[in-house]
Design a protein that fits this description.
The complex is a heterodimer of chains A (212) and B (210). With 212 residues, chain A is of the alpha+beta class. Chain A has 2 domains: 42 residues, no CATH class; 165 residues, Up-down Bundle (Butyryl-CoA Dehydrogenase, subunit A, domain 3). Chain A contains 7 helices and 6 strands; from the N terminus they run ββαββααααββαα. A 4-stranded antiparallel β-sheet of chain A has the order 4-3-6-5. In chain A, α1 runs antiparallel to α6, α3 crosses α4 and α3 crosses α6. The longest helix of chain A has 30 residues. In chain A, 44% of the residues are buried. In chain B, a hairpin with a 6-residue loop joins β1 and β2. Chain B is built from 7 helices and 7 strands, in the order ββββαββααααβαα. Chain B has 2 domains: 48 residues, no CATH class; 154 residues, no CATH class. Chain B is mainly α and 210 residues long. At the A-B interface, β2, α3, α4, α5 and β5 of A face β1, β5, β6, α2 and α3 of B. The structure holds zinc ion. Zinc ion binds next to loops of chain B.
Chain lengths: 212, 210
């Protein structure tokens, strides 16, 4: 017979979110970890609300990030505005398929998947769903791992703008789309950080506890 | 990778809780370089890395030297009809600032210069403090700062961005790759090696609770 899972929370123990020290403070709340000084909480404070706020902001900025140009190229051939998607198409037509694929994954696939994954995680955690906790935990880990890579295009624009300064032959100027895109990446990172992965497991643990 | 099983004994001393699912488990001995994995959710719990602190110090000092080169020397040089422009990391930021793109400049400066520099500085100070073996009140502060800073340093993504820019420019101009490109690439690898050797959990365990 498997013992029912015992969590730190179930035993009234605080696991410090910064240094991992287990402690049982004399007083509920308003106490801090004896080792690193972080304030002790069973779960991150207002985790779902904060994560949802960042996520909604990310969704809103996702629209200008993709619709507005991320940079503008002036050359003897005229003026050209580039969006995230046209940048990928350009690499593809230039024959750099490998790089086109990396940029496509980093700038198109990852941001969309990250927004959708965080939405799924927040909704299931909000309704205290015990549905497939292991798969959801792995999804969260994946989001944390790859989310930052979406900054790729922001850096490409910055480097091109710094290098291509040949007035009047050719110049590259960053446009506001790049900034919105950077904001989407940062907001979705903040959303993932605000989310407490323990909320995925709490309903599952509660269920197995009552069945035991 | 050894997987820990959930505890069923009554005593809670010496137990650890999983960072991701809160499951209490009893730590086990690991072979050198081994990971212990949560029995409930597969999350990595801790690693055993004997002697890794000296390696971490060597890697982070190396990364710091390469970072200084990468900061000041040109990453790429571009030539169109006799005109040459070059960009170093710091010049990229200056150029953006000069063009009035202040928020953009700050974003790039923070994620590719300030935060990676802070991460390196904190790691090196922690490792040097440990070398002189002085229990320092700074240690918990430094380790907390490191946890905070780590996700925001994006050297490896910037490096990939340089490669993408390189391909985009290759058709329109002559490009010379500067010494800083290779320094940044080397710094990226050393930084990854350093943070892999820098066993944060182990270092926290050495800080005595008050
Ligand atoms: Zn776990």
């Amino acid at each position: 017979m498997r013992p029912s899972p015992r969590t730190a929370h179930a035993l009234g123990l605080y696991a410090c979110h910064t240094c991992g020290l287990l402690s049982r403070p004399a007083r509920e709340g308003a106490s801090s970890c004896g080792r690193c000084g972080s304030s002790l909480r069973f779960r991150k404070t207002n985790s779902i609300e904060r994560a949802a706020a960042y996520l909604i902001a990310a969704y809103i900025l996702y629209i200008p990030a993709n619709v507005l140009p991320i940079m503008e190229t002036h050359s003897v051939f005229g003026r050209e505005e580039n969006t995230i998607v046209s940048g990928v198409a350009y690499l593809w037509h230039a024959g750099s398929w490998g790089l086109a694929l990396i940029v496509f994954i980093a700038s198109v696939v990852v941001p969309v998947l990250k927004l959708l994954a965080m939405t799924l995680l927040l909704i299931t955690a909000h309704y205290q769903s015990a549905w497939r906790p292991l798969e959801r935990a792995k999804l969260y880990r994946l989001v944390e791992l790859v989310g930052r890579w979406s900054m790729l295009d922001v850096y490409v624009v910055a480097i091109l703008a710094a290098l291509v300064q040949f007035r009047p032959l050719a110049t590259v100027t960053p446009r506001s789309g790049a900034l919105y895109f950077g904001a989407v990446v940062i907001l979705s990172m903040l959303s993932a950080m605000a989310f407490d992965p323990r909320l995925i497991w709490d309903p599952a643990h509660k269920e197995s506890h009552t069945h035991a | 990778m050894p997987v820990l099983s959930p505890t069923d004994s009554q005593s809670t001393t010496g137990l650890i809780a999983c960072n991701e699912c809160d499951l209490l488990q009893r730590p086990i001995a690991l072979p050198a370089g081994g990971w212990a994995v949560c029995g409930g959710c597969d999350a990595p719990l801790y690693r055993y890395t004997p002697g890794s602190l000296d390696r971490a110090l060597a890697f982070s000092l190396g990364a710091a030297v390469l970072f200084l080169i990468g900061l000041t020397f040109p990453i790429l040089e571009l030539e169109i009809q006799g005109n040459v422009t070059s960009s170093s990391l710091s010049r990229t930021v200056q150029q953006l600032w000069k063009d009035g793109l202040h928020v953009f400049a700050v974003l790039i400066a923070a994620t590719t210069i300030l935060l990676p520099a802070l991460e390196l500085a904190v790691m090196i100070s922690v490792l040097l403090l440990l070398r002189v073996r002085r229990a320092s009140a700074w240690m918990p502060k430094l380790l907390r700062l490191l946890t905070l800073v780590r996700p925001w340093g994006m050297t490896e993504i910037f490096f990939m961005g340089v490669l993408v820019a390189l391909v985009k420019l290759a058709h329109m101009a002559d490009i010379v790759t500067g010494i800083a490109l290779w320094s940044l690439g080397g710094m990226m690898l050393l930084l990854i090696a350093a943070s892999r050797s820098f066993n944060l959990r182990h270092l926290w365990e050495q800080v005595a609770p008050q």
